[in-house]
């Protein structure tokens, strides 16, 4: 047991300079952290300060990486010439000493940083203990364990960088390959991603255990290569299309809750003939939803376009990512699809049929909280603090908020007619109900780490005169709005078709 | 006498290359065993398997009370290991290195440590990376003697050292080893002769022989015969004769099983009475050269 202390003390003595540098960088980061939740400044010195802050953040991460690599390679687990191999080291204490070092000089400083920063942003840290622990878990899983694993199978910094380069190349290559697979969107990748993280995490832990207790670098490298192969097979062979269809079942006819959806004919189709350049081109399909029940909102997670051309030819986009939020009442947006130029050109002169399917998540708002905008900072939903601010490029106001650890899910409503702002005319058509939502589709928050305070906006937009110009703020001190927490209600697929259209009409926005 | 080290049919293969081919060796407790052989003979591989740095392809190695595959942790409190190519933590000073490793040994003798530092004239505040090769070897040795191990294994410890440092080290090892068993590998035969009690010769991954140095020295003789006339050589010679060279009236050979009476009677039987015969003792180096040449010739004949 004492060995942990001896090895730890030796490592501290060996790496004191790196430790001091990392702590100084963290100190600077903590000092400048209010930048995280302060409004984006215009160009000039404040922007440079923000850039420096970002640079220090990157340098800090690199410093930690370097520290982890050096401390693990201090008792290298590769090769047969290290003096410690024939000394009375207990392997489990060696592993424990390295873990203690990393906890002391990476995890603990980050935890202290979070605990210091949260109160500075107005959040008591003891309200967020589970979130802070989750942040430590994420830091360990995504920063420490992978770096420790590569360090455990390499003998020097140069070897480490070489392997790291290989890992980056593997990830980039695999991402590119998966990107070419139809339907490999985020909506379909939940199961493959879970498998990927489980295999990668399991392989990393297995390698660390193998190296510390058996010190067999070739077997460990084999385990990593094997897991890379398994991940590649899983990600490239996953049935993405059926996975979306399984996660988002087709709504049975006559079902009560779901919204309806239809494709609008693009009546604003430009006469302009857009040239066909490249292998693909964008089509913008105007979608209108209806029938959403009050108190709900729908997030379109993915969309699929099928085009049926004369002669029995068909083209399918596969499921592509989307992130549009739809509200009760008629709600419209343009869904973008990348279409093969070859197919487009072959059908440009003829009428085609089009079918669009949407994989959607429907959320139901919980009880709403009525909030009055204060002149200074004010608290909303217990875990966020907001204040009025102006955007970088506009003079109208919006609510600039911050929350602890994760951006909260919210659905906000504001009736612009009742605003306390001075409006030239309260009958402007632009003064319709305003709604804004945030993070409703993200159940998995970022956690703590170097960014324990999450900035976000509640933006209701601005009112404009009937010509659509001269924007005027609609959020002022004293203005009331309501805020609710949306909860996932169900996931399902909606589909709609339109017949006898020309694809050329869909190369420009409809709204 | 019980064995401190026992190797049984030890084999190590690296893909197509065999570094050890069924090596069998027993080293008695308390002996100073010199493991010699040419470069690439398998000495370092055998030692690394013993120290559980490498794993054997087959066979078994026992070191003190442990199977070498289980050698770890506190077992190393009884075993010292010094190697010419060992990576020491070069950022440490001599004092810090000794203070650091001291923590791991309950039997560490501070007085002995101080004595070794003084005797080796080690610069306490200098970092290991700034030390000469000889000095680093002395530090490694001091850190392996100070806890009075039962067994000290040294892999080519004197390689590349100047004669003065080498003699210093040898003297200290012999003095300080006490009852410990020493296993020292080397390709330099001369240095072994001065202090080893036993010797083993390894070649191409196999042990050619292993015996007490005294008996080895006593059974080898360089024989020179002055005959009256040119000798006629019979078809078969005693198996113990090596490298027979006959020219005009002189015959030279090496007797590998020297026994004055028997050797003389063999000579009389084959050549008749010699006018003059000398039986010169051989240096260890000469003995090994003879054995090596003999083994090579046998190999070529087999081929």
How would you describe this protein?
The complex is a heterodimer of chains A (511) and B (303). By secondary structure, chain A is of the alpha+beta class. Chain A has 3 domains: 2-143, no CATH class; 254-365 and 490-506, Immunoglobulin-like (Sandwich); 369-484, no CATH class. Chain A contains 10 helices and 18 strands. Chain B has helices spanning 43-50, 94-102, 110-119, 133-145, 163-177, 189-193, 213-219, 260-271, 284-302, and strands at 3-14, 17-28, 32-36, 58-63, 66-67, 79-83, 151-155, 181-186, 198-203, 206-212, 221-226, 241-247, 250-255, 276-281. In chain B, a hairpin with a 2-residue loop joins strand 1 and strand 2 (17-28). The two termini of chain B are 40 Å apart. The model of chain B has no long low-confidence stretch (mean pLDDT 88). The A-B interface holds A 2-3, 6, 10, 13-14, 74, 76, 79-83, 85-91 and B 48, 51, 53-54, 72-77, 79, 81, 83, 85-89, 91, 96, 100-101, 103-105, 140.
Structural key phrases:
heterodimer; A: 511 residues; alpha+beta; 3 domains; five-stranded antiparallel β-sheet; 18 strands; 39% helix; globular; B: 303 residues; four-stranded antiparallel β-sheet; 9 helices
Main interface by residue count? A-B, 20 and 26 residues
Q: Count every helix of chain B, treating DSSP H or I runs of 4 or more residues as helices.
A: 9
Q: Report how far apart the termini of chain A are.
A: 70 Å
Q: Which percent range fits the helix content of chain A?
A: 25-40%
Helical amount of chain B: 25-40%
Strand coverage percent of chain B:
25-35%
CATH class of the largest domain in chain B: Alpha Beta
Radius of gyration of chain B: 23 Å
- Summarize the main sheet of chain B: 6 strands, mixed
What's the order of the H and E elements of chain A?
A: HHHHHHHHHEEEEEEHEEEEEEEEEEEE
């Amino acid at each position: 047991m004492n060995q942990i202390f001896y090895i730890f003390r030796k490592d501290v003595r060996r790496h004191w300079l790196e430790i001091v540098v990392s702590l100084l960088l963290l100190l600077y980061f903590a000092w400048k952290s209010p930048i995280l939740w302060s409004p984006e400044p215009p160009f000039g010195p404040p922007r440079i300060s923000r850039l420096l802050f970002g640079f220090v953040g990157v340098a800090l991460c690199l410093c930690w990486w370097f520290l982890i690599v050096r401390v693990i390679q201090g008792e290298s687990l590769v090769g047969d010439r290290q003096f410690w191999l024939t000394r009375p080291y207990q392997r489990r204490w060696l592993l424990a000493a390295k873990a203690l070092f990393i906890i002391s000089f990476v995890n603990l400083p980050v935890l202290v940083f979070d605990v210091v920063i949260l109160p500075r942003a107005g959040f008591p840290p003891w309200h967020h203990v589970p979130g802070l622990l989750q942040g430590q878990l994420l830091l360990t899983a995504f920063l420490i364990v992978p770096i420790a694993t590569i360090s455990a199978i390499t003998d020097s910094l140069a070897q480490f960088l070489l392997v790291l380069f290989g890992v980056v190349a593997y990830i980039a290559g695999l991402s590119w390959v998966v990107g070419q697979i139809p339907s490999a969107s985020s909506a379909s990748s939940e199961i493959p991603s879970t498998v990927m993280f489980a295999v990668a995490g399991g392989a990393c832990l297995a390698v660390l255990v193998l190296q510390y207790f058996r010190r067999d670098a070739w077997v460990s490298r084999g385990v990593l290569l094997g897991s890379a192969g398994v991940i590649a097979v899983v990600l490239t062979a996953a049935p993405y299309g059926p996975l979306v269809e399984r996660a988002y079942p087709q709504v049975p006819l006559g079902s009560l809750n779901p919204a309806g959806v239809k494709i609008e004919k693009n009546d604003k189709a430009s006469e302009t003939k857009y040239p066909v350049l490249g292998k693909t081109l964008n089509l913008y399909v105007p979608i209108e939803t209806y029938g959403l029940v009050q108190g709900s909102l729908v997030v379109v997670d993915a969309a699929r376009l099928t085009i049926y051309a004369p002669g029995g030819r068909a083209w399918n986009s596969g499921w592509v990512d989307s992130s549009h939020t739809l509200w009760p009442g008629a709600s419209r947006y343009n869904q973008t699809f990348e279409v093969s130029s070859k197919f487009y050109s072959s059908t440009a002169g003829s009428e085609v049929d089009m079918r669009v399917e949407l994989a959607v998540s429907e959320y139901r708002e919980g009880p709403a909280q009525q909030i009055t905008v204060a002149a200074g900072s004010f608290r909303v939903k217990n875990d966020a603090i907001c204040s009025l601010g102006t955007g970088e490029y506009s003079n109208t106001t919006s609510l600039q908020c911050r929350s602890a650890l994760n951006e909260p899910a919210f659905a906000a409503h504001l009736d612009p007619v009742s605003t306390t702002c001075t409006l030239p005319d309260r009958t402007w058509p632009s003064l319709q109900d305003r709604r804004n939502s945030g993070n409703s589709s993200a159940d998995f928050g970022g956690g703590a780490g170097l960014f324990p305070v999450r900035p976000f906006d509640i933006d209701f937009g601005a009112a404009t005169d009937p010509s659509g110009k001269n924007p005027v703020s609609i959020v002022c001190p004293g203005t009331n709005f309501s805020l609710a927490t949306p909860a996932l209600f169900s996931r399902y697929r909606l589909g709609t078709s339109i017949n006898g259209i020309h694809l050329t009409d869909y190369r420009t926005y409809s709204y | 006498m019980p064995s401190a080290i026992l190797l049984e049919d030890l084999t190590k293969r690296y893909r197509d290359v065999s570094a050890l081919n069924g090596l069998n060796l027993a080293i008695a407790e308390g002996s100073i065993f010199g493991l010699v052989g040419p470069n690439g003979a398998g000495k370092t591989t055998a030692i690394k398997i013993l120290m559980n740095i490498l794993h054997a392809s087959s066979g078994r190695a026992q070191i003190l009370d442990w199977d070498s595959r289980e050698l770890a942790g506190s077992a190393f409190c009884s075993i010292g290991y010094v190697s010419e190519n060992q990576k020491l933590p070069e950022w440490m000073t001599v004092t810090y290195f000794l203070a650091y490793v001291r923590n791991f040994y309950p039997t560490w003798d501070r007085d002995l440590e101080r004595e070794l530092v003084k005797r080796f004239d080690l610069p306490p505040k200098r970092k290991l990376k700034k030390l000469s090769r000889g000095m680093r070897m002395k530090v490694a040795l001091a850190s392996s003697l100070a806890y009075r191990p039962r067994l000290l294994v040294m892999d080519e410890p004197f390689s590349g050292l100047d004669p003065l440092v080498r003699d210093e080290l040898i003297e200290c090892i012999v003095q300080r080893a006490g009852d410990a068993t020493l296993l020292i590998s080397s390709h330099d035969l001369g240095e072994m002769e001065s202090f080893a009690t036993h010797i083993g010769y390894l070649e191409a991954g196999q042990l050619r022989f292993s015996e007490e140095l005294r008996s080895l020295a006593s059974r080898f003789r360089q024989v020179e015969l002055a005959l009256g006339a040119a000798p006629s050589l019979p078809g078969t010679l005693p198996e113990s004769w090596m490298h027979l060279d006959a020219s005009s009236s002189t015959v030279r050979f090496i007797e590998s099983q020297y026994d004055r009476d028997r050797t003389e009677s063999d000579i009389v039987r084959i050549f008749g009475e010699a006018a003059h015969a000398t039986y010169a003792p051989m240096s260890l180096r000469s003995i090994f050269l003879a054995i090596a040449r003999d083994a090579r010739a046998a190999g070529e004949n087999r081929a």
